[in-house]
Amino acid sequence: MHKRPTSLPTPAGDPKRLQPQEQRVQQPGSHSTGLSHTYWRSRTMARGEEPLLSQGRPSSDRSDDRSMEEEDALLTGQKQEPRKQGWAFWREIGLFAWAVIATALVIILAVLYQHQQQTSSPKPSGGEWKNGRPTGKRNLIFMVSDGMGPTSLSLTRSFRQTSTGLPIDDVLVLDQHLIGSSRTRSTSSLVTDSAAGATAFSCGQKSYNGAISVLPNRDPCGTVLEAAKRAGYLTGLVVTTRITDATPACFAAHVNHREEEDKIAEQEVGEHPLGRVLDLMLGGGRCHFLPNTSDGSCRHDDRNVVNLAKKKGFTYVSDRKGFDGLNFGTGVKLPLLGIFADTDIPYEVDRRNMDDVYPSLDEMARTALTALKDATEDSDKGFFLMIEGSRIDHAGHGNDPVAQVHEVLAYDKAFSSVLDFLARDDVEGVLVGTSDHETGGLATAR
Length: 446
Description:
The chain is an alpha/beta fold. It is built from 13 helices and eleven strands.
């Protein structure tokens, strides 16, 4: 135990106390490992030693004169006359004032320069700018990894490294483009569903769980896809669930609840307040387009939405042979409706063994990109395309890690294909990718 230094006792007959010796004491609670904080108890000045600030060691050139004047004033009680400030004092004041003024000028010039760059300077890449806004032809691809969270990426990354013998620092394409996160909180629950999440994406407004591009008061809200269509852009949706599921529906339909998929199907082919807003659809969910009098239907009525789509000009393909005939989008006649499964396209871990029946997300994404690019070749407008890795969500809900990692890998591949398309295309394009929520409570640990 360390003892704090104390005053030493005075021997009898000695009028003076013994001088305490210099002692180094360790702070209570400090340990021997690492650096510790210490303090020093100074010893009393020995006889004959000169104090540090003695008369022979003035602290400044004028300290002696100032000290003598102060002592005289204290002894005599006379008020000390204020000293006249010399050139050195006013020089310091001037330098300080100049520094303040110069700093303020630099800040003002920096703000003005930034404002000018944002409002009037030409941008170095892509298109022209007018009044701070981009002009000219451009494309927007919006990608949604439904139900995917940080743990999904971590699990998929580790699975890929382990199963293929990659080094530990190998990452997904998605990892290389991660810049942050989005907040899609529902107005009715702390846990957001795909409908409220996609309404936030498409409308820029928060709504209740189950809402398909309607606000909490049930009023419809305009979507980014509808705005693009009205501005002259071509539009498309690519998914691996039903094309009438919550996420795709929120970009091209308006109903009070996501379960109204029969009505969503009708709006997607053109029975819509704004008319037909979609030029291309690829995914699953055929049962909502067939009358309930036919095999494979899940509709509640006998409306044949496939025939309705054909009457509105859609080209319809429904199987792998028809998809292959699209030749990855070259020579496609729009509008196009491609539905390749009665409900959802199987999980990628299963679909890859049925490749002759169902196209992959990557194949559908590349087909859509080429078809929309070719269709806008002679237009001064581009296209808007939403691509969803839909079944990451389902694998999370089902607590199926095998299905989930393969769904994330399929989405990562499609994401990479979109980047390649943008790199090759001569039209300015933007890719925005995000998730709407996380599902399944996935955790990875020993």
